[in-house]
From TrEMBL:
Residues 77-213 form the Fatty acid hydroxylase domain. The keyword NADP applies. This is aldehyde oxygenase (deformylating). Its main location: endoplasmic reticulum. One of its GO terms (molecular function) is monooxygenase activity. GO terms for cellular component: endoplasmic reticulum membrane. The chain crosses the membrane at residues 12-29, 67-90. It comes from Ananas comosus.
Amino acid sequence: MGFIGSDDFYMMFAPVVVYWAYSGMYEVLSSRVEKYRLHSRKEEETKNLASKKDVVKGVLLQQAIQAAIAFTVLQQFLVAMFVFDAWQYFIHRYMHSNRQLYRQFHSWHHRVVAPYAFAAQYNHPVDGVVTETLAGAVAYFISGMSPRTAAFFFSVATVKGIDDHCGLMLPWNPFHAVFRNNTAYHDIHHQLAGSKCNFSQPFFVMWDRILGTYAPYTLERREGGGFEARLVRKDKVGHDS
């Protein structure tokens, strides 16, 4: 799908359309309900130092600047997501393929076999720094985000990481509607049978798909309530030993 009609397009231009539609409604309405006006038409013409033509030009200029800034921020955000995901995938996968690194560092995180929300960042300090902190630093510098944009990005990444470990498949969860990498997807990775697959985190699943570590799953209702994510077995999932 091209830029026109994409979510990015709507994010940038929907506020512009709403602005002119809503203000236009008042412009039409004000000519028909004179008794409710705070200022007469004559006062608008005589007291205002800027003509309506100048106001239209000024507003359009401001909206063009805002759209350009929004586009730049969006681009930085997407670059940060890509870099963050790439770093975490390759470091995470290497932690699993290197037995010494796994036993000494990453196995801490997998002590939690049935994940819950605040266990999302339960890591060995070395694992936490190498896998998560450095991922954030590299994403920050490569994307060129401002500190304010970075604060928002890291907040979203933190929330997404918590969501992936929360252990709840809520039907109204917006992350599940946007990302294939969700709570059930990462739960498979925490299962013994799925520990060599579904390394991608926290946003996309593309690295798993590209490099052959993607593992499909089914979500089945558990007797007594709740759900169970079950790995769909293949002859071989992933390439790590």
